[in-house]
Amino acid sequence: MSSESKEQRDVSPRDSAEGNDSYPSGIHLELQRESSTDFKQFETNDQCRPYHRILIERQEKSDTNFKEFVIKKLQKNCQCSPAKAKNMILGFLPVLQWLPKYDLKKNILGDVMSGLIVGILLVPQSIAYSLLAGQEPVYGLYTSFFASIIYFLLGTSRHISVGIFGVLCLMIGETVDRELQKAGYDNAHSAPSLGMVSNGSTLLNHTSDRICDKSCYAIMVGSTVTFIAGVYQVAMGFFQVGFVSVYLSDALLSGFVTGASFTILTSQAKYLLGLNLPRTNGVGSLITTWIHVFRNIHKTNLCDLITSLLCLLVLLPTKELNEHFKSKLKAPIPVELVVVVAATLASHFGKLHENYNSSIAGHIPTGFMPPKVPEWNLIPSVAVDAIAISIIGFAITVSLSEMFAKKHGYTVKANQEMYAIGFCNIIPSFFHCFTTSAALAKTLVKESTGCHTQLSGVVTALVLLLVLLVIAPLFYSLQKSVLGVITIVNLRGALRKFRDLPKMWSISRMDTVIWFVTMLSSALLSTEIGLLVGVCFSMFCVILRTQKPNSSLLGLVEESEVFESVSAYKNLQTKPGIKIFRFVAPLYYINKECFKSALYKQTVNPILIKVAWKKAAKRKIKEKVVTLGGIQDEMSVQLSHDPLELHTIVIDCSAIQFLDTAGIHTLKEVRRDYEAIGIQVLLAQCNPSVRDSLTNGEYCKKEEENLLFYSVYEAMAFAEVSKNPKGVCVPNGLSLGSD
Q1: CATH assignment of 551-621+643-723, given 1.10.1670.40, 3.40.50.360, 3.40.190.10, 3.30.750.24?
Q2: How far apart are CA 528 and CA 547, in angstroms?
Q3: How many CB atoms sit inside 10 A of residue 200's CB?
């Protein structure tokens, strides 16, 4: 060996890393003999191509005692100081941070304008969505009022509008109707005693002897569900489990909202036709409702039908004009309020209720009712319903908050948003309110009309307060058919999602399938089951993607060190005797067989080769026995001794995020099978997590860790210099003396 190569081999890893490309040109290898496991050191000849070895030192992990870790965490979180108390209060009440810095000249005009417009829009929508939630109109006004005030104090988003949301109103209404039926309330406004439920034995309120009618019991159920949903949301914020929302993808939420929109439309059909039908719940309620509608269509109230058609003819074109000219209009035309006022005047002076038996909103009281605690005895019955309601509520709120924060260049705190929306449900539940969340349509209006801060929410609350204290009784003669039309017209955005399907299909077919499955299950089964089906199917799709992931052989891009798929790109270079395989997924128990089959299919199958070799050996022995005059079959001899053209397989692990025990065993098995036929397996571009898993799983010995390469190019260069002059590959179990 030359003195130069000896000096290069003695260079330490640190010196090699710090030197200017002073990498060894020779490699110290160990060859495995056919009849022994001992290795013989040898020098590669000058014809071998040198390669540059990447040397990286891992950070040393400090040994942390679990007890010390827990003590430090407790000390950090349990310490109390004036500064920490101040930060905690300011964090819980963000209004104390931004309100003192409020720029009056810059922001006040936009906040007042947007608050007024959203308040005007909320008045008819609050009344309309109350019907959807199975409540009296005044409770919708209460809900919107309290939500606007509380989110102003606790929210971190400057633009979202928190209040009633159609899908949540639908879910509340389904729960309310179910509990009304269990309590013995029929469709006629019967009034059983407050203390009795369907079994006649359970008392709901032992201290009250008054009669609770259907409306009273409905808001009792609604406020109890709202309270439990708010508790869930605050608990999720406290335990920082906002990660639950990541399982609700955009495709899933969009499909769920669209499917629920069909259910909302169906539930409002009876108001458009003036039919007095019971509300159906449970699986298949959409189909059942339409069956009831068509069976009773001969009872249609012509006055309500004509009113509905006239309102549709006014609302739909005006809404389209608002959307089409939103960039030119300083504020959208409040057509809903105009329709409500006009319809109320027409109904009142035309005496439509008295003359044509048209269904009207009825008396809406002024002022506020005394606060009342939720009914604790109802909690076991509605606790499960509140889970889905709470998850949908905070998922929509957080997603809208982050979307508008990103658009306008500020940040929101997801956990604080969960606190905010949770208390927007807990506190109002004591004041006869039902569940709230952010709503996209009203948020878009709020943003487009110049909103800068949540001070606009206070202006909106003042508009609602004016209605509650003075104007509310004037809506006595408002027809329910008008409210049904307002609800249906506001479903346009969700129903328009069908127009986006071709684009979604071209981007991601899997997301489109998730959208369809969630939409159909939400519409045809029920909203809760639809949400559950959507989440389960979405997770199944994720598993399916990793169960049968893409895999390919790679080639070298000319004049670079970049490797790409040979099946996807042209003019890629490949080295004879070396195949580079990429597997685009984590390697774990679900896809381990897929990994092996793809690798064996695209390279060589070591099992079949070993079987062929055994058959050839047996045939050779038989031919030796029957050979006459010492003449042997040259074909059999050649078949059993010729080495394979392939001598190295490099597995690109850059797309393998993690390994489990099954994945490690699979790599060991693959390596062992290929080693048996003289092919070495090299792993390249393993991330630290995969490297740790390989080390803990004893994939290779300590002296073999240098066979884990930091780049595919480095592994390929090593493979070129590691085969001996005869062309037989160096088997696994190598050690590099120069490293």
Answers
A1: 3.30.750.24
A2: 28
A3: 10
How far is it, in rounded angstroms, from Cα 230 to Cα 435?
8
- Indicate the domain borders of the chain: 98-184+213-543, 551-621+643-723
How many angstroms from the chain centroid is the CA of residue 721?
48
Query: What is the Cα–Cα distance from 33 to 39, expressed in whole angstroms?
Result: 7
Please give the helix or strand (H or E) that residue 78 lies within, else none: helix 66-78
What's CA 321's distance to the chain center, in Å? Answer: 34
φ, ψ of residue 82 in degrees (nearest 5): -55, -40
What's the CA gap between 467 and 123, in Å, rounded? 8
Contacts of 257 (CB under 8 A, 6+ apart): 167, 494, 497
Tokens found for residue 358: 């048209």
Farthest-apart Cα atoms in the chain, separation? 124
57 CB neighbour count, 10 Å cutoff: 8
Residue with tokens 């199975």: 134
Question: Phi, psi at residue 564, to the nearest 5°?
Answer: -135, 170
CA distances from 148 to 79, 142, 248, 323, 424 (A): 34, 10, 26, 25, 8
Are the CB atoms for 263 and 167 separated by under 8 Å? Answer: no
Which contiguous run of DSSP H or E holds residue 42? Answer: strand 39-43
Please check whether residue 735 is in contact with residue 727, taking contact to mean a CB–CB distance below 8 angstroms: no
For residue 455, pLDDT beyond 70: yes
- More reliable by pLDDT, 427 or 628: 427
Query: From CA 278, how far away is CA 218, in angstroms rounded?
Result: 15
Instruction: Tell me the backbone φ, ψ of residue 262, rounded to 5 degrees.
Output: -65, -40
At 14-44, the pLDDT tens digits run 343 333 333 333 333 333 333 333 333 333 3
**Average pLDDT, stretch 452-467?**
90
Quickly list H helices, 497-604. 501-507, 509-524, 527-547, 592-602
Q: Is residue 530 within 8 Å of residue 522, measured between CB atoms?
A: yes
267 with 533: CB under 8 angstroms? Answer: no
* Residue 427: per-residue pLDDT: 93
Lowest mean pLDDT among 293-307, 414-428, 514-528, 714-728: 714-728
Strands 437-438 and 551-556: unpaired
Kindly give, in sequence order, each residue whose CB lies less than 8 Å from that of residue 549, ignoring residues fewer than 6 positions away.
Answer: 583, 584, 585, 591, 594
Task: Dig out the tokens for 495 from the structure.
Answer: 């129903």
Kind and range of the H or E run holding 614:
helix 606-626
Task: Give 2's pLDDT tier (boundaries 50, 70, 90).
Answer: very low
Q: Quick check: helix, strand or coil at residue 587? A: strand
Residues in the chain: 739
How high is the pLDDT of residue 125? Answer: 83
Q: What secondary structure, in 3-state letters, does 338-382 show?
A: HHHHHHHHHHHHHCHHHHHCCCECCCCCCCCCCCCCCCHHHHHHH
Name the residue with tokens 């959307």: 323
Q: Specify the residue for token string 């604080």.
A: 416
* Cα-to-chain-centroid distance, residue 351: 51
Q: What is the pTM of this model?
A: 0.69
Tell me the pairing of strands 648-652 and 680-684. Answer: parallel
Residues 6 or more apart whose Cβ sits within 8 Å of residue 434: 133, 135, 139, 140, 143, 164, 169, 172, 219, 222, 223, 225, 226
Please write the tens of the pLDDT for every residue from 368-408: 888 888 888 889 889 998 988 998 888 888 888 888 888 88
